[in-house]
Specification:
This protein is mostly beta strands. The protein is 5% helix and 52% strand. It contains three helices and 28 strands. The chain is globular, with a radius of gyration of 29 Å.
Length: 504
């Protein structure tokens, strides 16, 4: 990926006004190659071992492979411009207001006559984002300050949406082979792959990706209010409220499903093998139909560096909710599943996968300063100790059935009575530390010996669990949902390092 970018900002101060305007232009050239994919499916571990050790290299149940052109080349461009005014209305009141405009020129489609969904990609041109803010000193000494802001922000679309729609558009120049049975003519011996399709191969019905013609740019109204009070000359406390209201969030929906008429006990439809468009199997379309909200209360205590130490402590109480799940293929770190009911997005309304209800962060730096030239001054001066404590409640995760309950071909269904992201990982706590001893050499030369550690107490922090539970075909759990799921992964264990640094 090659990116060229031009940014230019101009400021103009006139009396009580500080005007600013600017542009931002990015030209993005992508050359992508999809990773090679060939997949063997085995009925049992014994069959796999027999194929692996060579005693029966065709012990697999079936084989699938991706063939054809796996290259994609496309260009896109992101443009933005803004104008704003920073207006000192009165000695104790400042107003900031302005507007920004963004346009995202997405890649061109690779059209295919049989695919009416990817003949072209739409460009949303209605991305005007007003914003305003105020800072108001409530008393003459400016010991109490109120700050507030609100603005409409637009998020560039993920180019992976268009990459998938270009490569998976049903064009036979890139296609899937399989499932091929081991007895079929030309079937490979494990672990080989096919150079060409086997004799008599018939191209299977393809599943495609597409981007909705009405796709809109994801946006959010962001607002916050903060009240800060200086308690002393170096100590202040701040309380605040933060809100984000998102709209037009992207969601991946299979629009080719046909309800069978049957439903699960909670109303989720069960789908039939029929397809709306019989040319394709699944039509996975990115639609901008999701919504999200985030609300948080914050409290911060800050002490500036005086008398050889400083500290800051922040606590956040937050809740984020959306009805727009996207998997980790598009959102890094997300353990979310696809929507469980493509006909009713609100069935997937629940906590966002990155929701943290409680977050506490405390940091401190101690750097003693002792006058004189005695042994005590020599021992205490030129030391610095930094400490960071962070603790938060565990992230949510989606509890999933081991059965395709709605028969849509995707294992992403929740058991009956379980909301999206109803599971909770355990709390996460870290204590990090860094100690430095400075060694003055000359006026502008200094050496440093340091020791630093992450997760000093080696706290066990679980980052992943086995979240699949056994259910019957109707979604009823075979056993009670466990209060604590078995862990499968963890965050960093204790890490320590020593170092030497020389500054001049």
């Amino acid at each position: 990926q090659g990116i060229s970018q031009v940014i230019d900002n101009v400021s103009w101060i006139v009396g009580k006004h500080a005007f600013k305007t600017g542009i931002d232009a990015q030209w993005i050239a992508d050359q992508r190659v999809r990773g090679e994919l060939f997949l063997y499916n085995f009925a049992t571990i014994a069959d796999y071992l027999a194929a692996k050790n060579g005693t029966n290299p065709r012990a697999y149940s079936n084989f699938q492979q991706q063939l054809g052109d796996v290259n994609a080349s496309y260009d896109s461009a992101f443009y933005g411009g803004f104008v704003q005014d920073d207006w000192q209305i009165a000695p104790r009141v400042k107003l900031l207001y302005g507007v920004r405009y963004d346009i995202f020129d997405v890649p061109a489609a690779r059209s295919l006559a049989a695919n009416p969904y990817s003949q072209s990609f739409a460009i949303d041109k209605n991305n005007f984002g007003p914003r305003a803010g105020v800072a108001w000193a409530l008393d003459r000494a400016a010991r109490t300050v109120l700050r507030a802001s609100v603005g409409l922000m637009y998020e560039p679309p993920l180019l992976d949406f268009y990459d998938n729609a270009i490569l998976n558009n049903g064009d036979p120049k890139s296609y899937n082979v399989g499932p091929v049975l081991p007895a079929a003519t030309g079937a490979p011996a494990f672990p080989a792959s096919l150079a060409t399709p086997p004799p008599g191969f018939v191209l299977p019905k393809q599943s495609i990706n597409a981007v909705d013609q009405g796709f809109r740019t994801q946006s959010a109204w962001l607002s916050n209010v903060q009240l800060e009070r200086a308690l002393t000359s170096d100590l202040a406390v701040t309380v605040g409220y933060v809100n984000s209201t998102g709209r037009d969030l992207p969601v991946l929906i299979d629009i080719n499903l046909v309800p069978s008429g049957a439903t699960l006990s909670d109303g989720r439809p069960i789908f039939s093998p029929a397809r709306v468009n019989s040319t394709f199997d699944r039509i996975n379309m990115f639609q901008s139909i999701g919504e999200a909200s985030y609300n948080a209360l914050t409290a911060t205590l800050t002490k500036r560096m005086t008398h050889g130490w400083m500290t800051q402590a922040t606590y956040t109480l937050a809740r984020g909710v959306d009805n727009a799940p996207l998997t980790g293929a598009y959102v890094v770190g997300s353990g979310d599943d696809r929507v469980s009911d493509p006909t009713n997005l609100n069935r997937d309304k629940g906590l966002t996968p990155f929701n943290q209800t409680h977050t506490l962060a405390v940091s401190a730096v101690v750097a003693p300063q002792v006058g004189g030239s005695g042994f005590g001054a020599m021992l205490l001066n030129n030391n610095q100790l930094g400490i960071i404590l962070q603790a938060n409640s565990g992230l949510p995760f989606n509890i999933r059935s081991n059965v395709d309950l709605n028969k849509d071909g995707v294992l992403n269904d929740r058991p009956i009575g379980i909301e999206r992201n109803a599971g909770r990982l355990g709390r996460v706590a870290y204590l990090d530390l860094r100690y430095s001893r400075f060694i003055p050499v000359l006026a502008s030369w200094r050496g440093e010996l340091f020791f630093e550690t992450k997760n000093l107490l080696n706290t066990k922090n679980v980052s992943g669990v086995n979240r699949v539970v056994a259910t019957d075909a109707f979604g009823a759990p075979s056993a009670s949902i466990p209060a604590v799921f078995p862990g499968t992964a963890g965050y960093d264990q204790r890490q320590m390092q020593l170092g030497v640094k020389f500054s001049f």
